[in-house]
């Protein structure tokens, strides 16, 4: 600061000297011709002209040739010129740096295997990397095209329009029927969007193989299990069965029943996974269905002797698949009966909760510690494996409930406290309900 002030003062001093010299020379000439003050006025005017000329040269340089050498100017003008060039040099340097960063960012995005597409606030495609041409089939003419005219898959359109991009979606490729890609949108800037897509064909095929394998194994096991249980029943009905063998036969029968239940549940799960999200949409009379399920539960409850209560507070019906809903609700009631010590209280409800309608089962049984709750709907996840096996559980019941709820656009909510009891609540949105 002090440096620039000093140099500015130097330049002002130079200008001042020039002005004094000019005035003195003109004063002398004016003295000789007898008009000294007019000559001084002329000197001042000449100095002003010189300043204007310098200003004009500076202006022309800035306007037309700022990239070329600056003009040679004296006095305060050279101080000004010096500062302008300094700013110019530093601006030039930062522009170069910025261009370097932009070009590096573009090169690295271009090198990505994931497709990256920039979409502006009006949903027009702005820019994309080479991977986007391979994965999404974008071509040079697509710049400025509406993304929804380009990606017309209904799943993508509803994902794009609903605005909640916390999840990714899997889509079938429209350029190669055999390929699949995972797609994620992110908002940035002024409502612009960034679309990232990557190929998941291998994962998709592996998942398909796993499903097919489980499906095939379950199908293949069905017939041998039916034969086994048939023979076991027949032998056990024989009055002359050797008593030493009866215990063994009884255990074989129990295990065969368990295996049959596992196979049945696995087949149901696989059917739920394979059918589309918009399953059947039959009107299910909930009060009627719940009464039917409740009667079956009473029979199962005979040996547990719990107090079972059914409270139907809403008369709304569900649009859905009866068989699947029956499975889900039965699983929840059976679990409550199984995991509550004898003589407990179990409350089954169907009630309105704002726009939604809920089915809930509350028990005062053994409860579940909080760290298990998030994992309960995984296949074969059990809090206590021995207890589950003793009660004839397959470990698939809650996985089935979760899938049934997904199919009906609802969700399963679990709250529980160890030794105090649990509530399993199935929440159905208004789109799935009829008065
Ligand atoms: P399972 O066939 O073993 O009952 P589920 O998938 O139905 O399998 O349930 C998973 C686990 O969740 C069970 O093993 C049990 O530990 C726990 N669980 C389910 N319902 C209840 C309940 N009402 N009270 C306590 N624990 C429960």
TrEMBL record:
Keyword check for Glycoprotein: no
Gene this chain is encoded by: phoR
GO terms of biological process kind: cellular response to phosphate starvation; phosphate ion transport
Species, as recorded: Aquirhabdus parva
EC nos: 2.7.13.3
Membrane-spanning ranges: 20-53
UniProt cross-references to PANTHER family, sorted A to Z: PHOSPHATE REGULON SENSOR PROTEIN PHOR (PTHR45453)
Major subcellular location class: membrane
Record's keyword terms, sorted: ATP-binding, Cell membrane, Kinase, Membrane, Nucleotide-binding, Phosphate transport, Phosphoprotein, Transferase, Transmembrane, Transmembrane helix, Transport, Two-component regulatory system
GO cellular component labels: plasma membrane
Histidine kinase domain boundaries: 216-432
Subcellular localization, as worded in the UniProt entry: Cell membrane
Protein name, as recorded: Phosphate regulon sensor protein PhoR
């Amino acid at each position: 600061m002090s440096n620039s002030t000093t140099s500015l003062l130097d330049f002002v001093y130079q200008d001042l000297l020039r002005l004094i010299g000019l005035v003195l020379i003109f004063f002398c000439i004016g003295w000789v011709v007898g008009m000294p003050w007019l000559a001084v006025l002329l000197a001042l005017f000449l100095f002003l002209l010189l300043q204007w000329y310098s200003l004009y040269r500076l202006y022309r340089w800035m306007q037309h040739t700022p990239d070329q050498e600056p003009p040679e100017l004296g006095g305060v003008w050279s101080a000004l010129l010096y500062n302008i060039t300094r700013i110019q040099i530093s601006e030039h340097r930062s522009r170069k740096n910025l261009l370097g960063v932009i070009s590096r960012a573009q090169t690295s995005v271009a090198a990505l295997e994931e497709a990256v597409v920039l979409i502006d606030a009006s949903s027009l495609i702005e820019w994309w990397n080479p991977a986007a041409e391979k994965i999404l089939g974008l071509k040079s003419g697509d710049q400025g095209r509406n993304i929804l005219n380009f990606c017309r898959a209904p799943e993508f359109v509803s994902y794009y329009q609903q605005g909640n991009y916390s999840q990714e979606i899997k889509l079938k490729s429209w350029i190669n029927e055999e390929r699949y890609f995972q797609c994620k949108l992110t908002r940035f800037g002024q409502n612009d969007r960034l679309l990232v897509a990557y190929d998941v064909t291998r994962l998709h095929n592996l998942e398909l193989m796993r499903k097919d394998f489980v499906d095939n194994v379950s199908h293949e096991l069905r017939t041998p299990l039916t034969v086994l249980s048939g023979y076991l029943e027949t032998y056990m009905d024989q009055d002359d069965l050797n008593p030493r063998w009866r215990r063994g036969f009884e255990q074989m029968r129990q295990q065969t029943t368990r295996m049959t239940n596992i196979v049945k549940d696995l087949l149901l799960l696989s059917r739920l996974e394979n059918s589309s999200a918009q399953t059947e949409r039959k009107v299910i009379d909930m009060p009627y269905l719940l009464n039917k399920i409740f009667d079956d539960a009473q029979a199962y409850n005979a040996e547990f002797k719990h107090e079972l209560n059914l409270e139907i507070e809403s008369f709304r019906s569900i649009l859905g698949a009866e068989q699947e809903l029956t499975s889900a609700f039965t699983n929840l009631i059976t679990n409550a009966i199984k995991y509550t010590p004898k003589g407990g209280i179990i409350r089954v409800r169907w009630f309105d909760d704002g726009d939604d309608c809920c089915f809930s089962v509350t028990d005062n049984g053994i409860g579940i510690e909080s760290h298990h709750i998030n994992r309960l709907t995984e296949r074969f996840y059990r809090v206590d494996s021995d207890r589950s096996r003793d009660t004839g559980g397959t470990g698939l019941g809650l996985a089935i409930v979760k899938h049934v709820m997904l199919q009906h656009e609802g969700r399963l909510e679990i709250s529980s406290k160890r030794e105090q009891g649990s509530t399993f609540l199935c929440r159905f949105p208004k789109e799935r309900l009829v008065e």
